[in-house]
């Protein structure tokens, strides 16, 4: 099993088996993001798609998701969509 030093979680963890996104961004993620961090991103991505009411097959949605993805893994901080408030689980 291949491992990577995960840029998101800061430790050596099992790597993704293949690039999860097309192009250079997908390869960069495959080379430096763990499966665990990718699983966390998938939850964030669902929230982004829902909050922005995006259709994943649309080019504009894919571009916005890619922007958030790059920020989530490689940016200074991952920003939430404007007006997002997490649901309380009480």
Would you mind describing this structure in some detail?
The protein is elongated. It has a two-stranded antiparallel ribbon. The protein contains 3 helices and 2 strands; from the N terminus they run ββααα. Helices cover 48% and strands 7% of the residues. With 90 residues, the protein is mainly α. α2 packs across α3 (59-74). A hairpin with a 6-residue loop joins β1 (3-5) and β2 (12-14).
Please give the structural blueprint.
Elements: E1 3-5, E2 12-14, H1 23-32, H2 35-51, H3 59-74
Antiparallel strand pairs: 1-2
Helix pairs in contact: 2-3
Task: List the defining traits of the structure above.
7% strand, mainly alpha, 2 strands
Strand order within the widest sheet?
A: 1-2
Estimated radius of gyration: 14 Å
Q: Biggest sheet, open or closed, and with what strands and sense? A: 2 strands, antiparallel
Q: How much of the residues is beta strand, in percent?
A: 5-15%
**Count of DSSP-assigned helices:** 3
Tertiary shape: elongated
Count of beta strands: 2
Query: What gap, in angstroms, lies between the N and C termini?
Result: 39 Å
Task: Determine the structural class based on helices, strands and strand pairing.
Answer: mainly alpha
Average pLDDT: 88
Order of helices and strands: EEHHH
| Percent in helix | 40-55%
Q: In terms of per-residue confidence, which ranges show pLDDT below 50 for 5 or more consecutive residues?
A: none
Concise description?
By secondary structure, this protein is mainly alpha-helical.
